[in-house]
Amino acid sequence: MHGCGNDFVLIDNISEKIKEVDFPAIAKNLCDRKKGIGADGIIFMDIDSTCDIKMNFYNSDGSRGEMCGNGVRCLARFAYHVLNLPKLNILTDAGIVKTERIDETKYKILLNNPSIEDYNCSINYKGVNYTGSYIELGEPGIPHFCLEFDFENTNIDELYKFAEFLRHNSKFPKGANINFFKLTGQNNVDELTYERGVEDFTLSCGTGTGCVAVSLFKNKLINSNTLNAKTPGGDLTIELEFKSNNIKNIYLIGETEIVFHGNY
After folding, report:
1. CB burial class (10 A; 0-12, 13-18, 19+) of residue 35?
2. Residue 205 is among the residues annotated as catalytic for this protein
3. What does the alpha-carbon distance between residue 158 and residue 22 come to, in Å, rounded to a whole number?
4. Which residue of the set 68, 74, 121, 211 is catalytic?
5. Quick one: 72 and 23 in the same domain?
6. Is 121 a catalytic residue?
7. Is residue 261 a part of any domain in this protein?
């Protein structure tokens, strides 16, 4: 499946009962785009006594991820087909995520709120200081560094080097997903993400888009509760809910697509 081009292999582990110790190796094998199926990550759907289902999420390099916004949207649709549940509470390593089926392809999820926030994070690269926002969603948090940057007019080789430098920067002890964005209107952005664990640019990033929206609101660069993000893989929408002018809820909305079913 994919959510705006962010693609995943999904396995019904309620039926398959694969041992967790084997998850990393399976992730590396199946996500290999040359020798396997090919994906940004893999999701094992398991049962859990505290929630409707549990999400075991692994990146393509075999590392375990705290959570993945686009992955949760795909998992919600997958669970609807398997379990016929239009609304779910999904247990992830970053906390419980609530999901809702809007229609056959569109799903809405409640992202975890920020646990760590730095809206004035400055990093020096080749003698230039770049200031962005470091945000972790959930606890333990998914790390993101959001930077307003003209990525569309930057040489691709230099963009890779810059993204890799930021992703591994010592200011980020867990590493970070790098979310470049460019404002194209009052509540619209173009966005490009370099993902930790994939170690490459991906076609979209759900949690990253949520962090971009939070960063823009905190820095008073948007005046609406809605942000529309154009990514290389499609369009994502973030809706913010407020309480006493503070962010209470962050919703991610977007399309999901089933590419194929198969046996491996």
Report:
1. exposed
2. yes
3. 37
4. 68
5. yes
6. no
7. no
- Is 222 found in the same domain as 166? yes
If asked whether residues 97 and 151 sit together in one domain, one would say no
Residues 241, 134 within the same domain: yes
- Is 73 annotated in a binding site? The answer is no
Tell me whether residue 71 is annotated as binding. no
Residues 131 and 77 grouped into a single domain: no
pLDDT tens across 101-132, in order? 999 999 999 999 999 999 999 999 999 999 99
Residue 175 lies in a domain: yes
Pick the more confident residue, 14 or 140: 14
User: For the chain, what is the mean pLDDT?
Assistant: 95
Which of 31, 121, 146, 205 is labelled catalytic? 205
Is 219 annotated as a binding-site member? Answer: no
Phi, psi of 25 (to 5 degrees): -65, -40
Domain identity same for 180 and 196: yes
> pLDDT class for 100, splitting at 50, 70, 90?
very high
Is 196 one of the annotated binding-site residues? yes
From 110, 135, 169, give the residue that closes a domain.
110
Cα-based angle 93, 55, 237 (whole degrees, multiple of 5): 85
The average pLDDT across 182-205 equals 94
CA–CA gap between residue 229 and residue 187 (Å, rounded): 9
Whether 69 has a binding-site annotation, put simply, is yes
Note whether 208 and 129 are same-domain residues: yes
Residue 64 assigned ligand-binding role: no
Q: How many contiguous H segments (helices) and E segments (strands) does the chain have?
A: 5, 16
**Residue 172: in which H helix or E strand, if any?**
none
Could you tell me the pLDDT band of residue 186, with boundaries at 50, 70 and 90?
confident
* Number of domains into which the chain is organized: 2
